[in-house]
């Protein structure tokens, strides 16, 4: 099945400086994916003609299509047309039809067209003009022996209109056939990226369909994608590769909904089973409670949240305020008593306590050995788990709350 390899070049010093965010490249990438064009490179270049020209020249040696956005306006720093002309060895010529369209637009606006606007009607010799129905600057396509260099305005509204109405049909015709790329996201929790990589090694070496990983804090997304001549075939290919992925790591896949958090998935399960929880946290400053309370707007499973230092506790839990001063068995016992007290005093389904040290250098990557004890009491049994770090940094809090969410889900699964 024929396809094209493409790259995107975004022109603009303001993007390099971080003054604006490049949303154009992401949107173009999605459109290319949907018609079956392979995107291999994305580059951002400032408003410098020699540097932009160099990137274009490099792209012409490795890609079938280059899409450039930005730098087609009337000002001195709009250098894209010059860079493309120089890279493709084509002189700039005045396109009379484009110039006439410009004059008509300014007349309609009731504004006098200044001389510098005339440069927007300059395009490389023999280029294909791309009309701009929602702006002033036209785009153009320069076809070389190997590559098509496509220049579009940087204004998102203009770029999107011109890409959809002119560029995508051009690329489909250049490929000579319709093609689509479909993808899915399989969200995992409780398994590391390296472990997934080891289990999916053979699948990740395939070229179509493809399997890739995107790691986040305590979570890994598995991206699967398939390219085919029609959507139905692509979806069938995805079904087949997903089945193979699930054989290897299916126990850790909790969702196929993009951006759905594990806590949202878990709270929905808790709502369906009418499970409630009372929670105490010592060294995580309420991070776990916040994740559970805000995961799902229609339901919160929390009956009580206790962050030590903010609530009066019964005598048997008085020294839970200073877990750093206790030894490991005492911290474990405190966590167990706290979980039992929470469940008994609130009538929650589960009492859950996190009792740990909070030294500055005791986190996940700390130099000192910290510790956190997790205790879960459901009125029948008490489950405890030792976590080999404490600490007070944000990353450590996420890791500790991830572990607690994982244990809550294991408890839910055990009730089936």
What is the helix tally? 13
Beginning-to-end CA distance, first to last residue? 47 Å
Relative strand content: 15-25%
- Poorly predicted runs: none
Strand-and-helix sequence, N→C? Answer: EHHEHEHEHEEEEHEHHEEHEHEHEHEEEH
Let me know the number of strands.
Answer: 17
Q: What would the principal axes of the Cα set say about the shape?
A: elongated
Fraction of helical residues: 25-40%
Going by helix content, strand content and strand pairing, the class is: alpha/beta
Q: What's the Cα radius of gyration?
A: 29 Å
Task: Give, in spatial order, the strands making up the sheet with the most strands.
Answer: 2-1-3-8-7-6
Biggest pleated-sheet summary = 6 strands, mixed
Q: Kindly state the mean pLDDT as a whole number?
A: 90
| Assembly state (oligomeric) | single chain
Q: Mind sketching the topology for me?
A:
Blueprint: E1 5-11, H1 13-16, H2 24-34, E2 38-45, H3 49-60, E3 65-69, H4 80-87, E4 92-94, H5 96-109, E5 122-124, E6 128-130, E7 139-143, E8 148-152, H6 156-175, E9 180-189, H7 193-199, H8 201-204, E10 210-216, E11 219-228, H9 231-249, E12 253-255, H10 262-272, E13 277-281, H11 287-294, E14 302-307, H12 328-346, E15 350-356, E16 372-377, E17 382-387, H13 394-414
Parallel strand pairs: 1-2, 1-3, 3-8, 13-14, 13-15
Antiparallel strand pairs: 4-5, 6-7, 7-8, 9-11, 9-12, 10-11, 15-16, 16-17
Helix pairs in contact: 2-6, 3-4, 10-13
């Amino acid at each position: 099945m024929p396809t094209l390899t493409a790259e995107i070049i975004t022109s603009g010093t303001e993007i390099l400086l971080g003054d604006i965010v490049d949303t154009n490249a992401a949107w173009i990438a999605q459109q290319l994916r949907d018609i079956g064009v392979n995107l291999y490179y994305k580059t951002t270049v400032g408003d410098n003609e020699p540097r932009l020209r160099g990137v274009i020249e490099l792209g012409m040696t490795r890609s079938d299509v280059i899409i450039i956005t930005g730098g087609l306006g009337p000002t001195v720093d709009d250098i894209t047309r010059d860079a493309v002309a120089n890279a493709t060895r084509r002189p700039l010529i005045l396109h009379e039809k484009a110039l006439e369209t410009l004059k008509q637009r300014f007349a309609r606006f009731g504004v006098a067209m200044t001389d510098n606007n005339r440069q927007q009607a300059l395009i490389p010799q023999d280029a294909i003009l791309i009309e701009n129905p929602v702006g002033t600057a036209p785009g153009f396509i320069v076809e070389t022996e190997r590559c098509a260099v496509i220049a579009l305005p940087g204004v998102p509204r203009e770029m999107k209109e011109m890409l959809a109405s002119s560029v995508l049909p051009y690329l489909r015709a250049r490929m000579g056939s319709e093609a689509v790329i479909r993808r899915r996201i399989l969200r995992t929790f409780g398994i590391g990226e390296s472990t997934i990589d080891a289990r999916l090694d053979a699948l990740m070496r395939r070229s179509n369909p493809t399997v890739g990983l995107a790691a986040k804090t305590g979570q890994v997304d598995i991206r699967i994608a398939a390219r085919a001549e029609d959507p139905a075939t692509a979806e069938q290919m995805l079904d087949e590769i997903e089945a193979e992925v699930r054989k290897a790591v299916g126990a850790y896949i909790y969702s196929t909904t993009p951006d759905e958090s594990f806590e949202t998935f878990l709270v929905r399960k808790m709502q369906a089973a009418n499970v409630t929880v009372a929670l105490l946290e010592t060294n995580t400053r309420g991070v776990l409670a916040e994740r559970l309370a805000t995961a799902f707007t229609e339901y919160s499973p929390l009956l009580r949240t206790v962050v030590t230092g903010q609530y009066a506790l019964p005598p048997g839990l008085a020294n839970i305020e200073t877990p750093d001063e206790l030894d490991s068995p005492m911290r474990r016992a405190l966590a167990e008593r706290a979980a039992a007290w929470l469940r008994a005093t609130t009538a929650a389904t589960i009492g859950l306590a996190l009792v740990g040290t909070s030294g500055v250098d005791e986190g996940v990557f700390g130099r000192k050995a910290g510790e956190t004890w997790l205790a879960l009491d459901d009125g029948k049994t008490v489950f405890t788990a030792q976590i080999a770090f404490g600490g007070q940094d944000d990353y450590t809090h996420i890791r500790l709350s991830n572990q607690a969410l994982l244990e809550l889900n294991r408890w839910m699964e055990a009730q089936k």
